[in-house]
Amino acid sequence: MGAKNANSVPVLMYHHITPSSGQITTSPQNFESQMAALAANGYTSLTAGQFAAYLQGEVVPEKSVLITFDDGYLDNYVYAHPVLQKYGMNAVMFLVTDWAGTGEPRPVDGSGKPLPACPSHHECKEMIAVGKANDIAVRWSEVRAMEAAGTFEIHCHTHTHTRWDLNFDRAGKRAGIANDLKQSKAALLQELNKNTPHLCWPQGYFDDDYIQAAKTLGFSVFYTTDAYGFNVAGGNPQYVYRIAVRNKSGAWLMHRIGIAKNSYWGPLYNRWKKFARQRRMARKNQAG
Fold first, then answer.
1. What's 148-193 look like in SS3?
2. Of 2, 73, 80, 207, which has fewest CB within 10 angstroms of its CB?
3. How far is CA 215 from CA 82, 127, 182, 187, 273, in A?
4. What is the mean pLDDT of residues 66-77?
């Protein structure tokens, strides 16, 4: 009898792993607890290629997840990379290629050397805005070190992380997103000799123009910020659902994955969460 295929593959979404508190941030302690829980419970962290093959119908271990990080912050290298290495986990980094700089790799947690500052998300955005991305984003040298170690594989999150649907007419939007994707593809090819089909939409936004531009350039697996669905064998590779991981323990993550994989409770949970979100948005709009 062959191995039992996963009935669905939860895709986990992280941004920051740092002691600095703030939004979309998980502490190093909780991240290690989460990776330890995945390992202890027999989970396999898929590569992007394995995940794409699963969507096309190929078999993956019943307990499978895909671990993803958005943007490419320095703290992913300093804090997440050594933990992934410790537990034998593979993750995907969707890198904003214009933020990746040059220079020697910086120290990582556990190296015994003084660690670089890894500020909050708000501070990172401020530093990027004043041209200091090299202080808070990964360098190409660090990216190559992570790929060589098998902890992170790098894929596309555009070149500039710009929302081209804002402040541009339709022609400007189309030209902007196409050029942004071309630049990102060129950077990944030059620095990593990589031509990837995997694209994560900045801020989770996309429309038909975005999709058409990406398809034209050879992208075929598109990652959203929508948690309200299931990634199943034969599922749509142009709409990958992802779960935003909270700053909580490994026990919380196991519970959340359990819901995500449950064919009865999962859809009920998603409907309830989606309804609650729509109500929050409606109240916010009324108040505005």
1. HHCCEEEEECCCCCCCCCCCCCHHHHHHHHHHHHHHHHHHHHHHHC
2. 2
3. 35, 32, 12, 18, 31
4. 98
Taking 70 as the threshold, does the pLDDT of residue 264 lie above it? Answer: no
Contact 223, 198 (CB under 8 A): yes
Q: Are strands 11-14 and 64-71 parallel, antiparallel or unpaired?
A: parallel
DSSP 8-class letter at 111: S
Tell me which residue of 147, 121, 115 sits closest to 48, measured CA to CA: 147
> How many Cβ atoms sit within 10 Å of the Cβ of residue 44?
20
Question: What is the three-class DSSP state of 199?
Answer: strand
Dist CA 240 CA 225 (whole Å): 8
Give the span between the Cα atoms of 33 and 266, in whole angstroms: 23
Q: State yes or no: pLDDT of 281 exceeds 90.
A: no
pLDDT at 271 over 90: no
What lies within 8 Å, CB to CB, of 91 at 6+ separation is 45, 67, 68, 69, 80, 84, 151, 152, 153
Tokens coding 74: 């320095």
Percent of the chain with pLDDT over 70: 98
Domains in the chain (CATH in brackets) are 11-263 (3.20.20.370)
Q: Which residue has the tokens 């123009």?
A: 209
Both tokens assigned to 197: 């089909």
* HSE-CB of 288 using CA atoms within 13 angstroms: 6
Model confidence at 288: pLDDT above 80: no
